[in-house]
Design goal:
Layout lengths: L12 E2 L7 E13 L2 E13 L5 E3 L1 H11 L22
Antiparallel strand pairs: 1-2, 2-3, 3-4
Length: 91
């Protein structure tokens, strides 16, 4: 008989707040503000304590969300001309 490794959702994570409960995977609605505007993300992965209700949003999902919301590059690399600049043809 072999034992298999538990997936991250099968491992029990103790609650860091009450230390009595266990964090359970759930999907919640995530609320935040971006540039003064409310942003609502439904079905966002989170971990919720089964005793005290403490919530930790999934770090990986938060990373993806912050990457999507980050401003575009401020300093784009200069575009290189692929051909020599030529004068416009006369009409």
């Amino acid at each position: 008989m072999t034992t298999r490794e538990k997936t991250p959702h099968e491992v029990e994570y103790p609650c860091p707040k009450c230390r009595a409960g266990v964090l359970q995977p759930r999907e919640l609605t995530y609320f935040t503000t971006v540039d003064g505007q409310m942003l609502v993300v439904p079905n966002f992965p989170a971990w919720v304590c089964d005793i005290c209700g403490y919530v930790e949003y999934d770090e990986r999902a938060l990373g993806w969300l912050y990457t999507l919301l980050s401003p575009p590059m401020q300093h784009r690399p200069p575009r290189r001309a692929t051909h020599a600049t030529r004068p416009r043809p006369e009409k």
